[in-house]
Amino acid sequence: MTTDLETWGIQHAQGARMPPSLRVLRYHLYTYLRTWRSSLTTSFLAPVLYLAAMGVGLGSLINHHVGTVDHVRYLTFVAPGLLAASAMQVAASDSMYPVMAAIKWIRTYYAMLATPLEVSDVLLGHFAWVTTRLVLTAVTYLGVMAAFGTVHSPLAVLAVPTAILTGLSFSALISAFAATQENDQGFATISRMGLIPLFLLSATFFPISQLPGWMHPLAYATPLYHGVDLCRMLTLGGVDWVSAAWDLVYLVALTSAGVLLSRRLFARRLVV
User: CA dist 5 to 2, 10, 46, 157, 164, Å?
Assistant: First the structure.
């Protein structure tokens, strides 16, 4: 039988062999164990409420007066869009105030860098945590979609990594922005002038063809549109592989650029 001291020694040795970024992820997981109840609304209740309100409530009116949208029920059309949009919202919320708090208010990142961890470890641990949150949200949302009868292809399972990639494309850029801020005023601007318009105008609730012609290039340039388009093709099963490849390349390129920018701006802010 091992003593408490021996148990601690074993755990410490295991932690020492753990990759540095996973130690940062472990910190976020420990913190989440104290606050997980507050995320139930965004991760579990929101999918049901969104789909019930927009898909069933509004959708019944649209189906009655307009008919189908892109040849499917409105609920089936809007559900994959809400999957991608929810990933955007979760990733954005975990990359604004938490990043600023860890740098300026509670200075958690400085404490981490006082250990053998490096800036890249802190940043990768942050993105690993955001990915974990996105996995929980996307899997839950896809399960709710299946319960509502909006999944029409086995390819729908690929909508989960698509939603994760969509969220990371926002997280990387917003984390870079958060690392440069001295106060939280810029976050309100991002939400009001960026996230909300994207939520409404990136084919989440209606096809891009319903927008004025001059807005089409703006919609196509947004990462959320590509996430919505790819999630919708995968859940419906009618995949245009050329369009899907372009969506994927766009999201990967934007995420990669955001990660590199975050690495540079985190180092500039954190390394004295």
Answer: 8, 9, 45, 45, 40
Q: Are 91 and 134 in contact (CB under 8 A)?
A: yes
Task: List average pLDDT for each run of 10 residues in the chain, which is 272 residues long.
Answer: 43 59 90 78 71 71 67 86 92 93 92 92 95 93 89 94 96 95 89 88 86 86 94 91 94 96 94 76
Rounded Cα gap, residues 125 and 30, in angstroms:
13
- Residue carrying the six token digits 């969220």: 167
Task: State residue 157's pLDDT score.
Answer: 95
Dihedral angle, C-alpha 131, 137, 139, 145, nearest 10 °: -150
Q: What pLDDT, on the 0 to 100 scale, is given for residue 12?
A: 45
Q: Which structure tokens are listed for 176?
A: 């870079």
Do 253 and 169 form a contact (C-beta atoms < 8 A)?
no
Calculated CA dihedral for residues 251, 254, 259, 261, nearest 10 degrees: -170
Residue 10: CB atoms within 10 A of its CB come to: 11
Distances (CA, A) of 84 to 22, 156, 197: 26, 13, 14
